[in-house]
Amino acid sequence: MAFSKGFLIGAATAAHQVEGNNIHSDYWIQEHLPHTSFTEPSGEACDHYHRYEEDIKLLADAGLNAYRFSVEWARIEPEEGRFDENELEHYRRVIACCRANGVEPVVTLLHFTSPAWLIREGGWEAETTIGYFRRYASYVTEKLGGELNYICTINEANMGLQLAAISKRFKLMAEQAKKAAASGAKKAEGTVQVGMNFEKMMENMKYAAMENAQAFGTPQPQIFVSSRTPEGDKLVFRAHQAAKAAIKALYPNIKVGLTLSMHDLQALPGGESFAEAAWDEEFRHYLPYIENDDFLGVQNYTRTQYGPQGQLPCPEGAELTQMDYEFYPEALEHVLRRVHEDFKGDLIVTENGVAISDDTRRVEFIRRALGGVENCVNDGLPVKGYMYWSLMDNFEWQKGFSMTFGLIAVDRATQTRMPKQSLAFLGSYVT
């Protein structure tokens, strides 16, 4: 089927993952620490900074009508209070390229990476960050707002709490491994997770603390994807509200929202309380901060199941993606319906996709995910668009370039683009 005219069908990227040489950001510094947790540095990534015209044309030629991308704060304000007009003009050209190709630009102001100076000032646990982010949002909107209809302030604003929960589970596993070692058990690490060398990791953490102290002035820099405290969690959403107010003061007609990372939380018998608590933490407790937003960016990749003891592993025999989570495109429809129960504004799927080497499985993932979106639209849910993650195979943060989410393959030795069948398949849904 094809969606109605005006429905956005596109793909998404994030500046740091595709542009290359984002030298003023916190991530660039962390990638180059001697004891980094990154498998490789981003380097020139996909060189999208110089090749955006080719990439946007590939997207448009396949029939897609929207492109979600981020502007890089660390480029635009490389030093506190010093704004780089040339970098701002670069993003004006990207937006103009979208328009010239009949593509709606959906701009994200912050997609995980921050200027290194912001982290030295206390980062995403510091009250001052709200004012800095408001000023940055105001500057970008003043310069580019006349050319935009959609702005996402912050990508996956709830990521910090999710990481805090994962970190807590990881520490528990490490303690279990230590106890097993003390009792003389062989290969203690194997009792909790294959391939984990906790001793070495703990050793690396000591080095990382020293290296972070040298780079950022603190052994525990509060980057956007650090484990968040409850206070830091609220701070991120207050920064969103401040940025939204700044945008609306300049261009009231721009539709403003943020994006959230959400799982399809399924309760098996006895797991209901765990699933409810997880949904409260992942979504519901943010409602006071977002209920008046123009839209919510829904980002979903898979499901999580709960039993009487809490979170369950993937079902036995389930197809797994390169990211080691379950291939389950039906999750998207379930999440859209669940979100709509409480959030009454427009919904845009700002990320949904799969890291997999077999592109026929990617086509199948898109087919089933969009079937779910169609069901929602037919039932009257205000779903206004779908952005596949990602336009091209890119730098998947700490996992490097090994995760292939893209609709376009990239030969990184030559930066040659090779569109996959999934790109044309997604384009076939556009009216």
Explain what you see.
With 431 residues, the chain is α/β, with parallel strands linked by helices. The chain has helices at 15-18, 26-31, 48-61, 73-76, 85-100, 116-120, 128-144, 159-182, 198-216, 230-250, 272-282, 287-290, 331-340, 359-378, 421-427; strands at residues 8-12, 66-70, 104-110, 150-154, 255-261, 264-267, 295-299, 303-307, 310-311, 346-351, 383-389, 408-411, 416-419. Strand 10 (346-351), helix 14 and strand 11 form a beta-alpha-beta unit. Helix 14 (359-378) runs parallel beside helix 15 (421-427). The model is unreliable at 185-198 (pLDDT under 50).
Which terms summarize this structure?
single chain, 431 residues, three-stranded mixed beta sheet
- Mind describing the biggest β-sheet? 8 strands, parallel, barrel
Range of helix content: 40-55%
| Element pattern in H and E | EHHHEHHEHHEHHHEEHHEEEHEHEEEH
Number of alpha- plus pi-helical segments? 15
- Any idea what the CATH superfamily is called? Glycosidases
Give the overall silhouette: globular
Look at the structure and give the mean pLDDT.
Answer: 92
Low-pLDDT segments:
185-198
Estimate the strand proportion: 15-25%
Placed side by side, the strands forming the largest sheet appear as 1-2-3-4-5-7-10-11
- CATH architecture designation: Alpha-Beta Barrel
What is the C-level CATH assignment?
Alpha Beta
Radius of gyration: 21 Å
CATH topology, by name, is TIM Barrel
What is the tally of beta strands? 13
Structural category? alpha/beta
Span from first to last CA? 9 Å
Number of domains: 1
